[in-house]
Amino acid sequence: MLSEDSFQYALENTHVVRAPQQRIETFGQTSFHFSLVSELMDSVHQVRVREGSLHVDRPQILTPGFFQRTLLEGFGDRAEEFVDWLRVHGRDLAIIQYGFQFRKTGVSETLIHSPIDEVLDRLQEKAEKSEDPMCAVLRGVDEGWEVCLLKFAVDLIQQSAGRNLDDFRKRGLF
Questions:
Q1: Residue spans of beta strands (DSSP E) within 82-151
Q2: Are 109 and 153 part of one and the same domain?
Q3: Pick from 34, 36, 59, 163: most CB atoms within 10 A?
Q4: In a shared domain, residues 8 and 47
């Protein structure tokens, strides 16, 4: 388990070198291909490249009715009153839920003996040539690489949420 300092270090040192050209789909599953590059701490010009896919399930709308049906088990009358209040006053209140599946089995690791900037340049060039709009190249840290990947995912959610919300509104879903 990462220490709080290592966790924070991973968050602060996650950089998107090449962002996917598309965002999270509103009405279907989205898969992103990633290359996450990190330097080994005790070795000069030794870089680990992890490649794999990140799958994002279709966003779902969570309304006050959802909370009443699923989240209030074991709560008393006051919680029911709050949900009733939400139904009346929170007509426009909806939360978009994004589901993630990260399959570690799809991740491969390669050690490369080159400066990190050269490796990033090669991966970025490879991604551009592939013309894959769902390809991302990330720079992160070795010990907390999964934190780096999840930070990337959260950033994609933030970038996609506005468009997803607009798509739901256009279809009259809330």
A1: 95-97, 100-102, 108-112, 135-141
A2: yes
A3: 36
A4: yes
Provide the number of structural domains found in the chain. 2
Q: Determine the structural domain holding residue 141 and report its residue range.
A: 4-57+100-170
Dig out the tokens for 7 from the structure: 């966790």
Q: Give helix 4-12 / helix 145-170 axis angle, nearest 10°.
A: 60
Distances 82 to 49, 93, 95, 174 between C-alpha atoms, Å: 49, 13, 16, 20
Q: What's the average pLDDT block by block, 10 residues per block, for the chain (174 residues)? A: 84 94 78 93 92 81 59 60 63 59 72 97 95 94 90 81 76 71
Alpha-carbon distance of 153 to 136, in angstroms, equals 11
DSSP single-letter state for residue 28: S
pTM above 0.90, yes or no: no
What is the C-alpha end-to-end distance of the chain, expressed in Å? 40
Q: Does 71 lie in the same domain as 53?
A: no
